[in-house]
Amino acid sequence: MNAIETRGLSKAYGGRRVVSDFDMTVAAGDIYGFVGKNGAGKSTVMKMICGVAAPSGGEVVLFGGALEGSGAGSAPSDTGVGGPVAGSAAIRRIGVLIEEPGLLPNLSAYRNLMAKALAWGIVDAPARCEEVLRLVGLQGVGKRKVRGFSLGMKQRLGLALALLGNPDVLLLDEPFNGLDPEATRAMRNLIVRLNQTLGITVVVSSHVLDQLDRMATRYGVIADGRLVRQMSAEEMAAECGRSLRVRTADTARALALLQEAFPTVAFRAEPDGTLVATGAYDAEAVARQLQEAGQVVLEFSQEQRDIEDYFVELMEGGATHV
Ligand SMILES: Nc1ncnc2c1ncn2[C@@H]1O[C@H](COP(=O)(O)OP(=O)(O)OP(=O)(O)O)[C@@H](O)[C@H]1O
Q1: Ligand 1 centre distance from Cα of residue 225 (Å)
Q2: Where in the numbering of this chain does the ABC transporter domain appear (predicted)?
Q3: ipTM above 0.90, yes or no
Q4: How far is the CA of 285 from the centre of ligand 1 (A)?
Q5: pLDDT at 238
Q6: Which of 130, 157, 168, 296 has the fewest CB atoms within 10 Å, counting from its CB?
Q7: Which amino acid residue places its CA nearest to atom 14 of ligand 1?
Q8: Residue 79: is its pLDDT beyond 90?
Q9: Is the pTM of this model over 0.90?
Q10: Which fold has domain 1-93+167-230+306-322?
Q11: Nearest C-alpha to atom 1 of ligand 1 is from which residue?
Q12: DSSP bridge partners of 268
């Protein structure tokens, strides 16, 4: 089942469109890396998904049920966990860390959590607060006032707040912002653990692409409010993960030979006669094939394409091929 679908979602502020025809699909269990330049519209999309901002058009479908007030789609009734869930029932299944988590600096971490838990009417609030502190690794500092917390600790407390309602989905907007490498790694490990042990679906926007690369199972790329590309981690790896460069004495012959031997692999010839293979190729098999055909190999190397270059190209290219 899809945890989140947006259908033709759009948003305008004062007549200016900032999100247009946005069709995003997040499957249950995904860690969805949401990538885009500053001002591309990531936060706005996330705010519409969690109901903080009202769409100007289109709809948000959570767990198969349309979100109330998010377009013309009919709202099926709440059939419980696993079934379609509409409106406010679906919203309650989403935990959000967007912008500042609104922490009260003079209260302890535990008191901050309790204030929210009581306001939201969470059952057995003290136990739940202890549990989420444990989940984010702050159990030892629950009694300390938040004003003495590092940024990394504050972000983890923000995540604990998002987890209070026991959500199925977490929306995390730039959770690594301002964190040093160690805190970044701790936050990344925490997100992966929440996904793998509790099965929480995560949408995470970030400029820190190498962090996304280590955890995302799926990607969405947004440019100027439009979804320019959505792909699985495997597709991304195939496109930018690595490429094979081969130069032989007879480019045309080698190209024909390899295209025939490996019909599923994309080979192209560069102007200098180098053949480049991308996607799911087997370098050893390619080398063997050339050798068996008696081709004189002048160069044979593999390259790793930089993930940042790849995403920058997508964000700037703007070609829509979802
Ligand atoms: N409340 C608002 N009123 C008017 N314009 C807004 C409002 N919120 C966002 N915008 C505009 O909408 C566009 C998208 O903003 P948004 O914050 O969604 O981008 P973003 O991709 O999250 O950027 P960043 O990475 O900088 O957080 C921007 O041009 C922004 O100025």
Answers
A1: 10
A2: 4-249
A3: yes
A4: 49
A5: 77
A6: 296
A7: 41
A8: no
A9: no
A10: Rossmann fold (3.40.50)
A11: 13
A12: 276
Long-range contacts of the stretch 62-69 (C-beta < 8 A, 24+): 62/3, 62/4, 62/86, 62/90, 62/91, 62/93, 62/94, 62/169, 63/1, 63/2, 63/3, 63/28, 63/90, 63/93, 63/168, 64/1, 64/2, 65/89, 65/90, 67/91
Tell me how far the alpha carbon of residue 65 is from its chain's centroid.
Answer: 22
Do 1-93+167-230+306-322 and 243-303 agree at the fold level?
A: no
User: Rounded to whole angstroms, how far apart are CA atoms 267 and 273?
Assistant: 12
Q: What is d(CA 158, CA 169) in angstroms, rounded to the nearest whole number?
A: 15
Ligand 1 pocket test target in 16, 22, 38, 44 with most atoms within 8 Å of CB: 44
Please state the domain extents for the chain. 1-93+167-230+306-322, 102-164, 243-303
**What confidence category does residue 70 fall into, taking pLDDT thresholds of 50, 70 and 90?**
low
CATH fold of 243-303 reads Alpha-Beta Plaits (3.30.70)
Which of these, 151, 225, 213, 160, lies nearest to 182 by C-alpha position?
151
Pocket of ligand 1 (CB under 6 A): 13, 18, 36, 38-44
Residue 308 pLDDT: 83
Counting every residue written for the chain, the total comes to: 322
Alpha-carbon span 37 to 300, nearest angstrom: 36
Distance (angstroms) between ligand 1 centre and the Cα of 38 equals 8
Contacts of 284 (CB under 8 A, 6+ apart): none
Q: What's the mean pLDDT in 173-177?
A: 91
